[in-house]
């Protein structure tokens, strides 16, 4: 009788032990399931706020500096009295745009995570310096500042991000760019009422490289992230003001604030 009772009690203890183990494991398994279900949602939310993602926009405002650029050389020729028809050079004049600061505003659309299209406006006011030399009567040459030109570039660019060269934990994104656009130059405002006395137009082409660095994405709000942008570009101006009709070339570098949406 005692042996049968002991066996019954042992069986009851074993059943209760199994039930307790199952009840202890159930909450842990449920918690893990909930965490696994929520993890993809958190990853998706972070991805939708990542700057530079496909089908997103960015706005940039920058300050830059244009390097000096040659405007060519032209001769002041007089008609010769001899029968050969050879021109008589009285003197020669050459010019350049002196270095100048400028501002730029641009908007870009990230077609993919590696390719973007961008449109922008740059504005600067370089001074034209001219040099007179080779005087026929042997007078000494001289260099002097001339007028100030209001210069606009309206251009569009194709931007390619170099994803394999990212640094700073992936938040710094190097890029290369090429673009072309419209050149407009306004010469010497005579007065507020009369406006400018001459207009020049042409085309402008550029190629360059730079880097964008974004701070951590914002968890909420329409603006996804703020960052910094630095550019270096080589420009070729076709048309516009020159002394001899040649293409003028210049280098520009600068940086500013970029906002990702």
State the main characteristics.
8-stranded antiparallel β-barrel, alpha+beta, elongated, 1 helix, Porin, 18% helix, 261 residues
Question: Describe it for me?
Answer:
- This protein has 261 residues and is α+β, with helices and mostly antiparallel strands.
- It has two domains: 47 residues; 209 residues, Porin (Beta Barrel).
- It has one helix and eleven strands.
- It has an eight-stranded antiparallel barrel with strand order 1-4-5-7-8-9-10-11.
- The longest helix is centred in the first third of the chain and has 46 residues.
- The termini are far apart.
- About 11% of the residues have low confidence.
Quick summary of this structure?
The protein has one helix spanning 2-47, and strands at 56-66, 69-78, 88-97, 100-110, 115-124, 127-133, 142-161, 172-191, 195-214, 225-239, 248-260. By secondary structure, the chain is of the alpha+beta class.
Query: How much of the sequence is in beta strands?
Result: over 45%
Mean pLDDT: 82
Please give the largest β-sheet: 8 strands, antiparallel, barrel
How are helices and strands ordered from N to C?
A: HEEEEEEEEEEE
Structural class call reads alpha+beta
- Kindly state the number of beta strands: 11
The count of domains is 2
- In helices, the fraction of residues equals 10-25%
Name the strands of the widest sheet in spatial order: 1-4-5-7-8-9-10-11
CATH topology call of the largest domain: Porin
List segments where confidence is low: pLDDT < 50 over at least 5 consecutive residues: 5-13, 19-32, 39-44
Distance between the termini: 82 Å
